[in-house]
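Lecture notes, part 5. Sequence design as translation. It can be helpful to think of inverse folding as translation between two languages: the language of shapes and the language of residues. The source text, in structure tokens, appears below.
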């Protein structure tokens, strides 16, 4: 198996530098040094050597590896326990290479923002930054994204399969960036409220759907007033404001880093009404979605 996905019905012969496998021996191949890797360990106990240092992981976790990292498994793992996502940073921004992702300065503002999502893959990242334990609130999102990427690469059911694969990897990177991160996005807030934590987890999984306070209140066994008040007290934002910021952040990244049609991004981020999406996006960013893409997208 090569670590690129080759186009079939759509874009036959096109080589997309992204793949998913459960074959851990692929980590040892020379081609693996041309990729970043995200390992999803969905098991109870994992023993391995990372750059010569022994790791004993208990519980479900993610490991972020750069092109230079070396990882060896000490024991057998079934396909159900390990998934490995291979990708190159150029997939998201043609200006990002392994070298530029490790620069301290010298990048444009937009390139620096994109490079920030790869900070756990930097050469100077410590092992504790590379290994991330997953709690029950974020685990469903990670499973969902790995499954979606696998299906897109395998089936290639639409001409937008490369962009949609890129989209799901970006959302996975959003999640990774938010875990134990002191420089979080505006919508990634910390909270001690069990209710707010559960609601945030739900929004991260379902933000593309139509969501109302009434439906959330019923789902979480409360009323809309109590839900919104506790959420705002815990996060500093109303639930609707939090959800809107999440959607705008993801929409902006998709406009900047993919070629997915704007109408699909509108629907993909839960807006559905194109006129409303364009109006509110401009109010938030100062640009219409089309203008924002024209200024910041480097893929077209």
């Amino acid at each position: 198996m090569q670590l690129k996905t080759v186009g079939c019905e759509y874009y036959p012969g096109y080589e997309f530098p992204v793949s998913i496998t459960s074959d851990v021996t692929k980590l040892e191949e020379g081609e693996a040094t041309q990729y970043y890797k995200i390992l999803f360990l969905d098991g109870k106990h994992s023993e391995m050597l990372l750059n010569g240092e022994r790791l004993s992981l208990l519980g479900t976790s993610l490991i972020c590896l750069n092109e230079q990292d070396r990882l060896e498994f000490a024991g057998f793992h079934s396909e159900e326990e390990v998934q490995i996502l291979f990708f190159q940073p150029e997939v998201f921004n043609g200006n990002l290479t392994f070298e530029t992702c490790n620069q301290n300065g010298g990048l444009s503002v937009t390139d620096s923002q994109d490079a920030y999502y790869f900070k756990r893959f930097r050469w100077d990242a410590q092992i504790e930054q590379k290994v991330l334990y997953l709690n029950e609130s974020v685990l469903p999102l990670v499973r969902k994204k790995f499954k979606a990427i696998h299906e897109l690469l395998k089936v290639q059911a639409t001409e937008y399969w490369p962009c949609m694969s890129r989209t799901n990897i970006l959302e996975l990177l959003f999640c990774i960036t938010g875990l134990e991160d002191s420089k979080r996005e505006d919508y990634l807030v910390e909270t001690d409220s069990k209710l707010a934590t559960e609601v945030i987890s739900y929004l991260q999984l379902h933000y593309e759907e139509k969501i109302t306070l009434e439906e959330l209140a019923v789902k979480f066994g409360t009323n809309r007033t109590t839900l919104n008040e506790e959420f705002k007290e815990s996060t500093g934002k109303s639930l609707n404001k939090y959800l809107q910021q999440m959607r705008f952040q993801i929409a902006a990244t998709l406009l900047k880093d993919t070629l997915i049609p704007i109408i699909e991004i509108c629907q993909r981020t839960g807006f559905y009404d194109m006129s409303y999406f364009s109006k509110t996006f401009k109010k938030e960013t100062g640009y219409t979605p089309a203008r924002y893409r024209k200024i910041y997208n480097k893929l077209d």
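The translated text above is only one of many valid answers, since several sequences can fold into similar shapes. Residues 181-188 have pLDDT under 50 and may be disordered.
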